[in-house]
Amino acid sequence: MSATALPASPARSRADFVRRLLANRSFVIGAALFSIVALVAVFADWLAPFDPLRGNFRTRMLAPNAVNWLGTDHFGRDILSRVMFGARISLAIGLVVTLITGVLGTLIGAVAGYMRSLDGPIMRLMDAFMAFPPIILAIAISAALGGSAINVAIALAIAATPHTARVVRASVLVVREMEYVDAARSLGVSHARILLRHVMPNAMAPLIVRLTYVFAVAILNEAVLSYIGVGPPPPAPTFGSIVANGRDFIIDAPWITIAPGLAIIVTVLGLNLLGDGLRDALDPRMGVGPR
Amino acid sequence: MLSFIIRRAAASIPVLLLVSLITFGLLWLVPGDPAAILLDASATPEALERVRRELGLDQPFLVRMGQWYWRILHGDLGNSLLLNRSVASAIVERLPVTLSLTALAFVFAALVGIAAGVTAAVRHGRAADQSVMMLALLGLSIPEFWLGLVLIWGLAVGAGLFPAGGYVPFSENPVEWARHVALPAFTLACVQMGFIARMTRSSMLEVLGQDFIRTARAKGLPESTLVMQHGLANAMVPVVTVMGIMVGGLLGNAVVTEQVFAIPGVGRLIIGAVLSRDFPVIQGGLLYLALIYLVVNLIVDVLYAVIDPRVRLG
Amino acid sequence: MKTMFSRFALAMAAAVAFTAPAMAQKQGGDVVIAMTQAPPSLDPHASSAQVARNVNLHMFETLYARDENAKPVPDLAEGATISPDGLTYVFALRKDVKFHNGKMMGSADVAASLERFRKGGASAALLAAIDSITASGPNEVTVKLKSVQSTFLGNLSSPRSPIAIIPAEEAAKPIGQASPIGTGPFKFVEYKPDSHVKIEKFADYKPNPAYKERDGFAGAKIVYLNSVTFRFIPEAGARNAALESGQVQLNETSDSPTAKRLKDNPAFTVIPVLPFSMQVVKFNHAQAPGSDANFRRAVALAIDPEEIMAVSYPDIYKLDYAWVYGGSAYHSDRGKWKTDIAAAKAELAKSGYKGEKLAYIVDNTRPSVDVATVMQQQLAQIGVNIDIKVADWPTVSKVGFTDEGWNFWTHGFGIEPFEGPASVIAPWVKGVSQRKTDPVIDGLFDKINTEMSVEGQKKIFDQFQDHMSKEAVALNIGNYGLFQIASSKLKNFKAYRIPRMWGVWLD
For a Cys staple, B120 with which of A48, A77, B108, B201, CB 3.0–4.6 Å? Predict the structure, then answer.
């Protein structure tokens, strides 16, 4: 966030921003890809040709054909339907991770950035969390809590929060030193009010961009947890659990593994493009993005 | 310089203490019983109890925590409950495997990533730039374990070009080592490649737009000299920083890659330990990874200070 | 003397006739076997895991061992004399048996090994009937039992967690810490955790002169190979790939699509090992609704075993409701049931079950999870509502042996049906597995332990099976097996409970 860009007229600058966004190819393509996946997830009940849970063992491991467009798995369940419903759970997990990370990261980052006395201890704790590879931290936490969609989301959010807190803290630090904040403080405005009214709005842009990437990484990491075997329990499909289901049959029924992997790529690519587009439109010098 | 290093190293001590606290606290939440894995399904509760006692799992939390801190202060990470060896030796045995895999992936990612990033920056806005950036983003969007499975399916089993898993130490047979680590290292490098390419491009763009480059260009210095000598050298500062962060990503993703390709590294050790409740190994393994991360970032900060003296004063 | 000689000559001739045509044994060669996991321990007394047996039973031997038909026969012992009251066993030991460390095996080693096992072995219950163990001569060990146990030699020869004879000084070490020194045809070379165990031919090994041929875990163990390496490759695809690229000569567990694909490939031999295990579904009798026989019967009637087995173990299953394997003297057709949804609903209506969510715990291997997943679908048809809880084996087996936190649990019974009726009944004694004491089962167990005749034992076991199905104490869904795939260069390989590497050679 460039330090001098105090919005003169919010309405005007908002219109400006939207125009910049729509002119940004990354954003448009990303938004399109992600919207397709999100729509499929929301309307899976109508779109999916079969019940994703109901198998028929007499039609198991069929290669893609006219009836089962993406083939069937070893239960005889339709892969296309499972991928569609898988999008629902995977996106839901991604969304919950993003929300938890957003709230926790904002709270921790804002407090650390604004309260000088707490900055040191909080950031040391964040450093300590960041010393663990995030995916290993998530595996350990998910295994500790026991595999369920919400526990997976909690584990991934804990792993993603420290970096997000850092991003928020960095923008708070910049804003904190600005004249109008000083002025507000000397007028006796409360800390909470200063944080909410003056500091946070200016920290929003990098936070939103960061959260787009958090969403993308959450989709990828949910798949990893399911693959390792500490993800949500069966039979509910997630992108990761469908891949994990197919790994024993990768040689003879590769379609079970390939289809959900491609769905992951489309979703994550969409989110990453979306994030890039947002970043460019907000401030091209903000950083390099995901992971 | 020395005082900077000391100051920087001292700053990581509280972090290390917090790291070990998190490690210990986290794992006590993990349910399950390491005694059970040594016995079969029809083992009697008495048998389980006996094994538990032999493994010292019947001690209270605080006692075990105290013992653990006492030991790690003496450099002893304890004994694995299941592997019949000390945690330190179990980790040290596998460390070369993981480090050689991640190092190869790192070199691979850095070479390709930096070259791609520079190309993209020099050809800013043109087709080459856009395709490099698209590929980089694609690399960031592929799940590694899935890529690994697809590579096994296509290149190892389908085309028979590579072994589908396993590991041969470099010291035993360098050619076989290379054949075994090629696919996993490529898998591991893919994401990082994209990351480095993006980072290099954006810092190059920033540097190339600066006054001293414009001045140099005006003086008639050839473009290649400009890019290689001035641009790249200056662009390396942020890239070096990112490489420190990357180590965490590489080590984490190596865990998954080792799992897919059945490579006996630290990652598989930790996953195996998580799945069998081998507490000392989980704790020791996490501590080791965190330590590597902290040391690498210390080195990175020092390097950073060498490249950019202003940092030392900060 | 003359008769003995001619008998020997005859046996020699038979052996030659059996092996000679088209089978020239070749000395040497190194075999690599792909296994799913690493053995938890190479101390034979420390682990009853299948993967540990696979390795350990190449290096270690027992006093008695199971033959090809699972019958106990002498191995390190020449034989046993049993007192008329059935309480004293005097074992005569073979005199020419050498440990891998060069020492000769004597009665002190045997007594120390048995003592160690019964105090802390992974399956110490096998020797629970022992009152005292004495080295009664340099090559003689006397074991006194507290009470008559018809299965004592069966227990002593169980491969579950082998009651291996190890040197006395190793037996003095705590469980889990003995060095891998045994009397077996192979000796230990190295153990690289997460990678492999390597063993090599024990040059001083003398095959048991009482036998002429390979026979189960006993028999004449003749080694042609130089070494065997057990490589741990958890991914099914990676194991097959290693086999197909020639890096391993035997894949110890393969998936069925690969087995099908390689069946007609002359470079490989596909060996179905069926039955290898029995899929058992346990109910928690300590909690409603598992405490209610009507509920359990409803479940039994609602499920379709064929679908469960076909999905979980594609092409390597056999529907069999007996609690021992086919071919056993105790096998019968009792306990067969048919899927009947209407009858299941009627039984369910009689129970107190009102549609609550029930916990189905299962370990995180694909087939186990698949069994739970198919059952969940089938039981939904009669309105039984299931939550599947997947966890690692240690966690699941901890929860599954407590009264709370589970309603269903499925896993394989592999070794128990192989060991025989008493071993199959034992897990249900004192309600250990179903979490509620069942006096009928406990009574049958006491009876079978003192019944010495096979016919008598069969009658008791029939009663056990009838009781299991009438009360639906637990469900036996069927037998499953595994595919082993060998390179066709590996000759004379015969599948058994472990992939035996004696009697085989590389072409």
Answer: B201
